[in-house]
From TrEMBL:
Pfam families for this protein: adh_short_C2 (PF13561)
Alphabetical UniProt keywords: Oxidoreductase
Organism: Robiginitalea aurantiaca
Family: Belongs to the short-chain dehydrogenases/reductases (SDR) family.
The organism's place on the tree of life at top rank: Bacteria
Entry keyword annotation includes Ubl conjugation: no
Gene behind this protein: fabG
Protein name: 3-oxoacyl-ACP reductase FabG
Residue span(s) of domain Ketoreductase: 6-184
EC annotation from Swiss-Prot or TrEMBL: 1.1.1.100
Molecular function terms from GO: 3-oxoacyl-[acyl-carrier-protein] reductase (NADPH) activity
UniProt signal peptide: none
Length: 245
């Protein structure tokens, strides 16, 4: 098992890509701490345990710094370490530039960018103390090429890539890697709401002719969180079927 005895925190682990990551990591031997505001996170943890894995669910917002710090302290005190942090939590509030409200901008920045900062800042001291850590954060191919109606979302995802490169420099000497994953269209609850005609157009725009499944993205996270990626840091792994070629 590629993550045997590792302790992994997965934010936004209640559904979609986050759930796929949590379940895959558990199958690969990790104890998974699922962090989300959605109650479905408890179901994810219970399903993992029912399958013989180890998991906990905690209803915590990544924007709540004191709550995040308390949770990470609990994890370290309970398991003696924090090996892996998956910064997956994210939201969208799509609107064109001229119509986007300041509240819509602030909400996306708070979760997608500040939340990643808060969680990584909380995890770093524990990883530094043990001279080991894997930080993998959710970017998007939108952060590389932009997208209509997503000024806020694209800005945060580009920011995640930049933060990851910065953490590579700051934390590398402590045995900590920092990387990002940039998915393209993935069959999550959000994508399933897209009108069929538009969805078909999206598929035709992807060189592989289809959209990703959450597990396709989760395997990228698994690689970057594993010891196979010991010497991989500061990259953005794009998984979008060739869209960002």
């Amino acid at each position: 098992m590629r993550l045997k005895d590792r302790i992994a925190i997965v934010t936004g682990g209640a559904r979609g890509i986050g759930r796929a990551i949590a379940e895959l990591f558990a199958r690969e031997g990790a104890t998974v701490i699922v962090l989300d505001l959605l109650p479905e996170g408890q179901q994810v943890a219970e399903a993992i345990k029912a399958s013989g894995g180890q998991a906990e669910f905690h209803k915590v917002s990544v924007t709540d710094k004191p709550a995040v710090e308390t949770l990470f302290k609990h994890v370290d005190e309970t398991y003696g370490k924090i090996d892996i942090l998956i910064n997956n939590a994210g939201i969208t509030r799509d609107r064109t530039l001229e119509k986007m409200s300041e509240d819509e901008w602030d909400a996306v920045v708070a979760v997608n960018l500040k939340g990643v900062f808060i969680c990584t800042q909380a995890a770093a001291p524990y990883m530094k103390a043990q001279k080991y850590g894997r930080i993998v954060s959710a970017a998007s191919n939108v952060g590389l090429r932009g997208n209509f109606g997503q000024t806020n979302y694209a800005a945060t995802k580009a920011g995640v890539i930049a933060m990851s490169k910065t953490w590579t420099v700051e934390l590398g000497k402590h045995g900590i890697t920092a990387n990002a994953v940039a998915p393209g269209f993935t069959m999550t609850e959000m994508v399933q709401k897209i009108p069929e005609a538009h969805f078909e157009a999206i598929k035709k725009s992807i060189p592989l002719g289809t959209v990703a499944q959450p597990i396709d993205i989760a395997y990228g996270y698994l690689y970057l969180a594993s010891d196979e990626a010991r010497f991989v840091s500061g990259i953005c792994l794009t998984i979008d079927g060739g869209t960002s070629r």
